[in-house]
Design brief:
Elements (H helix, E strand, L loop, with lengths): L15 H9 L12 E3 L1 H7 L2 E5 L10 H9 L4 H6 L1 E4 L3 H13 L3 E5 L5 H9 L3 E4 L4 H15 L2 E2 L6 H17 L10 E5 L4 H13 L4 E7 L4 H8 L22 H10 L2 E5 L1 H15 L5 H17 L5 E5 L10 H11 L3 E9 L4 H10 L8 E7 L5 E9 L5 H11 L3 E4 L4 H5 L15 E9 L4 H8 L5 E8 L5 E9 L5 H11 L3 E3 L4 H6 L3
Parallel strand pairs: 2-10, 3-4, 3-6, 4-5, 7-8, 7-10, 8-9
Antiparallel strand pairs: 1-2, 11-13, 11-14, 12-13, 12-16, 15-17, 15-18, 16-17
Helix pairs in contact: 1-8, 1-9, 3-5, 3-8, 5-6, 8-9, 9-11, 12-13, 12-14
Length: 527
């Protein structure tokens, strides 16, 4: 009778105590540094809760990812290091692997999604990594990386689904718990952690629950990239068909097996936030730190604001891990614009008024007398298109959330019918840029670009100096945060008034360029 083969038992799942031991012995400080845990004083005052920021954005590669990556690579055999390593990453893990490989003297092949910001691609190359672009998400890049791993005999360094990587990320929590002592109080009610594949939250949750189980661990995802939350709700890993790409650092279609197990058992709550809330959080972080984080790095702060508002908390202490700062500079304009919407610091309206002389000036007077104090006009777009009614796209600053409906009601009361567009995505993203077109009513139109000083009364001065017989047929203005505003104005001025018009421009004293002969104007705006 043949001897029975012994079947090796599957290793027991790691417990929080196991991860605590692994994190305590993790080799991360060859490349990583202990980052600060500092109060966000301005945000704390606003929320009536103490908000602490864990500054992982200040790591050498501007992200926590090098902790786990290096901890994994430092434990490879000399034979494995000789052949080299490979990873798939949206950018931050890639930089950690590239830096770690450089430190250990090994080759690093980095497979990145084609949607990865150029700043991250360039950073990987500068660190000596060999970049291969493949697919639109992490999951696509991961599949290609596995193929290259087998083909070239490389060792795969997973960005999140590996106990050594998770243990490396857990050192973030170890530091936070120690650093509370230096801030004068051990109190920490909850720590908020962004989730992509789940490596950071698995490491943090295991350490927190091993040492201070009373502290809540709250996971945060984008509302269009919530694979972990859906997986936990379903009781099994769920693959998303698509993911949003604004927060590219957390754009993961399928979370890891080990990270899913850890998050399912240890995370107290999951939250989702939207793009506008993240943009507002990026601004909040900048106000307190003068640093700009990437979208993934702001998820935790966005969630803290949402959590405090929903639960009406006061006097609690929350920590947010600023997990990355690899922001594409080209995104800053979008972030700045949407931050105003996310905080409801700007309200948008479609306003209908009579198409008659004096309406514009009377409407400005209504704006100046709105309840709640002085409002700044952030945007004003208009093009003559109807002989009876004028439709204006208007942006106004607000002082608190929920004001837009009250302002719209006030406009209605004053005879200017208003539609509140503050939460209308179509209006925010497209319509505001499309107000205009040809007009059959714009005879004798002259087009001028002005530079107005950004101060109260600048537009009123313009209107007061205009002749009563001249009509505004086009107006486009958007506040860009400078000390002057660039304004495009169409004025109907008969040829017989040329001398008077020249005198008006001279008296006004604002720099201008006449664009009546501009070919773009003639193609798209002048009939």
């Amino acid at each position: 009778m043949p001897a029975r083969r012994s079947v090796a038992a599957a290793p027991a799942p790691l417990t929080p105590s196991d991860y605590l031991r692994k994190s305590l012995s993790a080799r991360v400080y060859d490349v990583a540094r202990e980052t600060a845990l500092e109060p966000a004083r301005t945000l704390s005052r606003r929320l009536h809760n103490k908000v602490l920021l864990k500054r992982e954005d200040q790591q050498p590669v501007f992200s926590f990812k090098l902790r786990g990556a290096y901890n994994k690579m430092a434990q490879l055999t000399p034979e494995q290091l000789k052949k080299g390593v490979i990873c798939a990453s949206a950018g931050n893990h890639a930089q950690g692997v590239a830096l770690g490989a450089s430190k250990l003297g090994t080759r690093a092949v980095i497979v990145m999604p084609t949607t990865t910001p150029q700043v991250k691609i360039d950073a990987v190359k500068q660190l000596g990594g060999e970049v291969v672009l493949s697919g639109e998400s992490y999951s696509d890049a991961y599949t290609h990386a596995l193929q290259l791993e087998k083909k070239q005999g490389l060792t795969f360094v997973h960005p999140f689904d590996d106990p050594d990587v998770i243990a490396g990320q857990g050192t973030v929590a170890l530091e936070m718990l120690r650093q509370l002592q230096t801030l004068g109080s051990n109190r920490l009610d909850a720590v908020f952690v962004a989730i992509g594949g789940g490596g950071l939250i698995s490491g943090v949750a295991n350490i927190i629950k091993a040492v201070r189980p009373e502290i809540k661990v709250i996971g945060v995802q984008m509302n269009d990239s919530d694979a972990m939350m859906r997986s936990v709700q379903a009781g099994e890993r769920v693959t998303l068909p698509d993911v949003g790409l604004f927060s590219d650092g957390t754009a993961v279609k399928l979370v890891g097996e080990e990270t899913f197990r850890g998050a399912s058992g240890l995370v107290d709550e999951f939250m989702t936030v939207d793009t506008d809330a993240v943009c507002a959080a990026i601004k909040d972080i900048f106000v307190d730190t003068r640093s700009i984080v990437e979208p993934a790095g702001a998820l935790a702060v966005a969630a803290i604001k949402q959590y405090a508002a929903q639960h009406k908390t006061k006097g609690e202490t929350y920590a947010a891990i600023l997990c990355g700062a690899n922001m594409n500079f080209d995104r800053l304009r979008f972030v700045a614009e949407r931050a105003e919407v996310g905080e409801e610091r700007e309200a948008l309206f479609a306003v209908t008024m009579p198409e008659e002389r004096g309406s514009f000036k009377r409407f400005l007077e209504v704006i100046g007398n709105l309840p709640g104090g002085q409002r700044n006009v952030t945007e004003f777009n208009y093009r003559m298109s109807d002989s009876q009614q004028a439709h204006v796209f208007l942006g106004l600053t607000t002082q608190s959330k929920g004001e837009s409906a009250k302002i719209a009601a006030n406009f209605d009361k004053q005879g200017f019918k208003a539609l509140d567009l503050t939460h209308d995505d179509l209006a925010q993203e497209h319509i505001r840029h499309m107000v205009g077109g040809h007009s059959a009513l714009s005879q004798d139109e002259r087009l001028l670009r002005f530079v107005f000083p950004e101060r109260p009364g600048a537009l009123t001065k313009f209107l007061n100096l205009m002749r009563p017989g001249w009509n505004i047929s086009l107006f486009h203005y958007r506040n860009q945060g400078a000390d002057y505003g660039r304004i495009l104005v169409g004025l109907q001025v008969p040829a017989k008034d040329d001398k008077a018009f020249a005198k008006f421009l001279s008296t006004l004293g604002y720099p201008y360029v006449e664009e009546t002969g501009n070919p773009a104007y003639r193609l798209f705006l002048r009939r």
